[in-house]
Amino acid sequence: NASSGLWEDVFGRQAYITFGLDLFAHANDEPKIQHTFDALSRALAADGPPHLQVLEISCGETAFDPNHRLLKRPVQALCSTYLVRSVNPDGSFTDFELLGELSL
User: Which of 19, 22, 51, 85, CA to CA, is 20 to 30 A from 91?
Assistant: First the structure.
């Protein structure tokens, strides 16, 4: 425990979370989608989200999306974390927290 400086036992489970997003660009800006995907991949590999270890970053094919009239590329990041149970001093349940560390 960083606040008290004492070791504490915690109990939890490993969890896997997949984050997804879509990258969009105008039809004549297809290289921007690749540039954005590369920048996102570097950012996740360098720092990553707090308490989440990024295991895999992937993307689908770039295709024209007629609903938005733009090019679209789906992107996913698979992350590992720990859901840790928090309890009050009397042992009653309070909440779950995401805990983990970045180690690429």
Answer: 51
Per-residue model confidence (pLDDT) at position 17: 86
Report helix, strand or coil for 46. Answer: helix
Q: How far is Cα 56 from Cα 74, in angstroms, rounded to an integer?
A: 14
Which pLDDT belongs to residue 92? 61
Q: Which helix (H) or strand (E) holds 43?
A: helix 30-46
Mean pLDDT of 51-62: 90
Q: Are 1 and 84 in contact (CB under 8 A)?
A: no
The label of the residue with tokens 């840790």 reads 84
Burial of 9 (0-12, 13-18, 19+ CB in 10 A): exposed
Q: Which amino acid is at 98?
A: L
Residue 92 per-residue DSSP state: -
Kind and range of the H or E element at 9?
none
70-87 and 12-25 strand pairing? antiparallel
53 neighbors 79 (Cβ within 8 angstroms): yes
